[in-house]
Amino acid sequence: MPELRKDPVTDRWVIISEERGKRPVFVTEEVSIPKSIICPLCPGNEGMTPPEVFAIRNYGSLPNSPGWNLRVVPNKFPALRIEGELEKEGIGIYDRMNGIGAHEVIIETPNHEEQLFDMDPFRMKDIFIAFKERCVDLSKDIRFKYIMVFKNYGQRAGASIDHSHSQLIALPIVPKNVAEEIRGSLTHYKLKERCIFCDIIAQEKDEDTRIVTENDKFIALSPYASRFPFEIWILPKKHESNFVAHIESSSYMSLAEIFSVILKKYEKGLKRPPYNFVLHTAPLATYDIPHYHWHIEIIPRLTRLAGFEWGTGFYINPTPPEEATSFLKEV
Amino acid sequence: MPELRKDPVTDRWVIISEERGKRPVFVTEEVSIPKSIICPLCPGNEGMTPPEVFAIRNYGSLPNSPGWNLRVVPNKFPALRIEGELEKEGIGIYDRMNGIGAHEVIIETPNHEEQLFDMDPFRMKDIFIAFKERCVDLSKDIRFKYIMVFKNYGQRAGASIDHSHSQLIALPIVPKNVAEEIRGSLTHYKLKERCIFCDIIAQEKDEDTRIVTENDKFIALSPYASRFPFEIWILPKKHESNFVAHIESSSYMSLAEIFSVILKKYEKGLKRPPYNFVLHTAPLATYDIPHYHWHIEIIPRLTRLAGFEWGTGFYINPTPPEEATSFLKEV
Questions:
Q1: Closest approach of B59 to chain A, Cα-based (Å)
Q2: How large is the ipTM?
Q3: Which residues in chain B are closer than 8 Å to A19, comparing Cβ atoms?
């Protein structure tokens, strides 16, 4: 029997329908990204990107030259522009503002062949350090209300370059889904005086059917109302609302470790699937709020979103999260 | 300069960023759907589907045998099931209910090779008649709160069978995005005592930069805050909140005509792109509400949704709707 489940934070309903798994499945070949003759993200080609804004480098190497392990540069084809005033305008019933923002690329490795699947946690932690550094820096710009950190791996997940990278976009607004999460968690807080994410962690520990793995500081679980097969959320076990303000130096390594465990499980169990991750954190203006809890959402892109999903905000997931969990625990 | 635009109904912001159009574009081959040896939707194979619930047939032909022009059958791999009680349950902080619902397939033509792009409006109107007939019938079931009518054409848009068809899902809840539209339009109504969609139509007629085409009863426009390149909404010009309750027999032909004009423009200008459409209408329990306005949203699937979009509910669209409009007007 299919089941309808509601996400307690956003009130989004999901159909968990194993029956759907039985319909004819077609192997969808991943059309691979054509190899560029020259990769603009490779060492030696630093001149092909805008000048770096952050890097983790070998001692003695110079900015915008080889010798880096990680490098952050403005996106050459930005969705938003850093220069200019934030002008807002009404046009009849419509509202617009200038596309002010920042759009940066975090080049995660100098090695063109290496993906996060191959990376050890010690090096992976530099990526989270880079996220934090860039967020702290950009949060000083009062035009920005939110910074969205995300990654697209594989063409089906939206990547257009295969050299391993993630991205961040600083926005003059709080995006709708984030605003909804904040609003939903505030509703819960007003009722219970507890963070709903802390409550989720407590209930998950109790039930123990959707926890994929955990370590000293983080927990990785399949959300109760998973939208996608093998969707996973990584949350700090301690209440922290804001990644930028709250993550401690001592936590990077634990975060990198649990992240790496999940990726290895995806690699082994799902054969290096295309995936996205998005860091969900409280808006910049809020420092410490009791009702929100930062986390990372990771989605392997195994199914296609069809008309139904974008039209309704309502997802059909053929893999119950309990099954996804036991599968991922075993691999 | 990129621009941020807000959808007046849902408060969803969109980045309109032409710059992004300039980044390297890769031809993404459409991986075609493997031809089944036997198509379950073709005439002669009626036994491969569950028995039909509606059909438009030649005189003298028998149910579940050839001689039909359009046929509606329950989905063989339904996301929801029609049988059973609607049981709701709380599990700690989580909510669930039985996956009760209906999932039907509207087989739009007996001809396996024919797509909506090829169909004349006179035959296309039968599809809208079928939508209405099935909605009226299913709306008698008090377990259902909403019926979602949609189509996926092309594998990239989520189709898994290439014989031309659309689908409907009857749901025991009102989907989130629809509920948001209703709420947003109600907010506007409380302020102005006018339907926001009627206001949109009035302003669009005034500005005349985003109207692609119109006829006696319908208007097709590129929404101000289009999420996708060449996104189009078709709305009745007269205020009508509920497709099922309000569409008149005399309107089917006008709807089919404007729909057909849009598809021909997509075919000519965008070369038969994969697309989705979703019918947005007021929930079943509401008969005539002054603040909501039914419409059809059509989205060619030319760009890939990446991590950014699903994480934020925030879209990046490289094609300003004014440009999309003037392009589509010309072809």
A1: 34
A2: 0.89
A3: 77-79, 81
* CATH no., domain A3-26+35-330: 3.30.428.10
Q: What is the pLDDT of residues B147-190, one digit of tens each?
A: 999 999 988 788 888 999 999 999 999 988 899 999 999 999 99
* Interface with chain B: mutation pick from A145, A312, A319, highest number of B CBs within 10 Å: A312
Q: Which of A165, A239, A293, A295 is catalytic?
A: A165
> Is B280 part of the annotated catalytic residue set?
no
Mutation site for A-interface testing, chosen from B36, B75, B131, B176 by largest number of A Cβ within 10 Å? B176
CATH of domain B3-26+43-330: 3.30.428.10
Domain ranges of chain B: 3-26+43-330
Q: Do B6 and A94 touch (CB under 8 A)?
A: yes
**Three-state DSSP string of chain B:** CCEEEECCCCCCEEEECHHHHCCCCCCCCCCCCCCCCCCCCCCCCHHHCCCCCEEEECCCCCCCCCCEEEEEEECCCCCCECCCCCCEEEECCEEEEECECEEEEEECCCCCCCCHHHCCHHHHHHHHHHHHHHHHHHCCCCCCCEEEEEEEECHHHCCCCCCCEEEEEEECCCCHHHHHHHHHHHHHHHHHCCCHHHHHHHHHHHHCCCEEEECCCEEEECCCCCCCCCCEEEEECCCCCCHHHHCCHHHHHHHHHHHHHHHHHHHHHHCCCCEEEEEECCCCCCCCCCCCCCEEEEEECCCCCCHHHHHHCCEEECCCHHHHHHHHHHC
pTM of the model: 0.92
